[in-house]
């Protein structure tokens, strides 16, 4: 009777790939932070081209989290930048970035970058004993 074997075809799911690199953040004001990042090194080898990035923001010591999407269907394989506004002044914010490919697959999030937003102008003349 011999061994029966049928062929099996498998679609390999690769996702959107690695995390974006060189994530940088700079406080522009007490409520505004700019974030920049470089593209993926294997952008042409992943399961579809990169068309969007998701920026994950966690405001430390609060329950506030936010996900902002950046993309318009164009090729975003070289990286990107975004301005995050409406932030809590003089607070640490943790930011991570992930790529999304044209199939909707979300890649790995970058290691978080933590940045302190500026102190608002109304408190710059206050004595440190009040904090």
TrEMBL record:
InterPro entries attached to this UniProt entry: FN3_dom, FN3_sf, Ig-like_fold
PROSITE patterns in UniProt: FN3
Residues annotated as signal peptide: none
Residue intervals of the Fibronectin type-III domain: 19-120
Protein name: Fibronectin type-III domain-containing protein
